[in-house]
Design goal:
The structure holds 2 protein chains of 2 kinds. Chain A starts with a helix and ends with a helix. In chain A, helix 2 crosses helix 3 and helix 5 packs antiparallel against helix 6. Chain A has 6 helices and no strands. Chain A is 85% helix and 0% strand. The longest helix of chain B has 48 residues. Chain B folds into 2 domains: 118 residues, no CATH class; 42 residues, no CATH class. A two-stranded antiparallel ribbon of chain B has the order 1-2. The chains are: A mainly alpha, B mainly alpha.
């Protein structure tokens, strides 16, 4: 997705410079929300402000909405059909693996310390075995993360100064 | 009011999805099962379709859930309104946050608060995706199991064939041809054919 955005915005339309593209990737990936939507909003806003952002996002969303809405009717008509159900029973098994791979890709894409592993295990246990809200799980972990991070960076500061001297 | 809650739930999903499309899964699964919007088997089908159609995964899923919920209660126009509510809900946080960041020109990526937030939120998001994997796996292999309410009859629906298929796809998804892993779409196509053969022709 991001490589298509780069080709269109940087090379074809010259809307963005390569430096803009770099900060787009950082911002799109580290802010909440779907990455593609973040990127579209960013490009639209850089070009034409508020309305640009709105229209770029609308343009991104429209094909998905139309395609899926049409597919919905096809699926609705086919559900309960013997062959349709058989095919989707097979596909369900594949979905399990797709979700597993999404997890593996995320989990091994970055180093994790003791807090990362603990938060990961606790979050998955809470959401599997209790009705605890997943939004709350994420928020609590984020707040604890901010506290640990601030303490850690404070501890490191004196060390950095010694290094400089 | 169903449309307000569609908008509100997807607003929360848009706000807390960190790390791309699949990070939405645990949030949507919890909402969908708590509100009774659809059965988990139906949801698993939707995930496959959202993955195999063009467009961002998150938008595809939002469209599906909006359509399904609205249609069920108010027919076609209910479906349209459901889609509008769900999609605008999931998109709105991105719009607001990105515009805010781009207009204040803060050195956003160097902010300690943001770094700390990601430091805490990312592992939790991973844990939630892992639990989504377990839930989807249970839906397919042991459809009667609910982890928060286990009983003896929970294990009745065990499907060995599905378990074997899952194992096969784990292996297939790791195979590399020309140093590239198989595209998810190819995996889905293979699974569709296998499904038709195994569950349709041989009726296992």
């Amino acid at each position: 997705m991001l490589s298509v955005i780069e080709r269109e915005t940087v090379e074809n339309h010259k809307w963005l410079t390569h430096a803009d593209m770099m900060s787009l990737v950082v911002i799109a990936e580290s802010t909440p929300g779907p990455i593609a939507v973040n990127a579209a909003t960013y490009v639209g806003f850089k070009q034409r402000g508020f309305w640009g952002a709105l229209i770029a996002t609308f343009g991104l969303v429209l094909p998905s909405v139309l395609i899926i809405s049409c597919l919905y009717f096809v699926i609705d008509a086919l559900i309960g059909n013997y062959w349709f159900d058989a095919v989707f029973k097979g596909i369900s098994c594949c979905v399990v693996v797709l979700v597993l791979n999404a997890f593996i890709k995320l989990a091994f894409s970055q180093k994790q310390d003791w807090y990362g592993w603990t938060a990961m295990v606790v979050a998955s246990i809470l959401s599997l075995f209790t009705n605890f809200s997943v939004v709350l799980v994420l928020l609590i972990s984020a707040v604890v993360g901010i506290c640990i991070y601030l303490v850690k960076t404070k501890e490191k500061l004196p060390l950095d100064k010694e290094d400089n001297q | 009011m169903i449309f307000l809650s569609l908008f509100w739930e997807f607003l929360k999903i848009g706000l807390f999805t960190i790390g791309g499309g699949y990070a939405m899964l645990p949030f949507i699964m919890q909402v969908v099962s708590q509100q009774g919007w659809m059965e988990s088997q139906m949801f698993v089908n939707f995930v496959a379709i959202a993955e195999s159609t063009p467009g961002p995964f998150a938008i595809n899923i939002a469209t599906f859930v909006g359509m399904q919920t609205g249609m069920e209660l108010f027919g076609f126009w209910g479906g349209v309104l459901g889609v509008i509510c769900a999609v605008s809900g999931v998109v709105l946080p991105s719009l607001v946050i990105i515009m805010a960041i781009s207009s204040v020109f803060v050195r956003f990526e160097n902010s300690k608060l943001v770094k700390g937030f990601l430091y805490g939120a990312k592992p939790a998001a991973m844990g939630l995706i892992f639990s989504a994997f377990i839930s989807v796996c249970l839906t397919v292999v042991l459809p009667n199991v609910h982890l928060d309410n286990l009983s003896n009859s929970s294990f009745d629906g065990f499907s060995l064939v599905s378990l074997v298929l899952v194992a096969i796809f784990v292996l297939l998804s790791q195979i590399k041809i020309n140093k590239k892993k198989l595209h998810p779409l190819i995996l889905i196509c293979i699974s569709a054919v296998l499904g038709a053969l195994i569950f349709g022709v041989f009726q296992l």
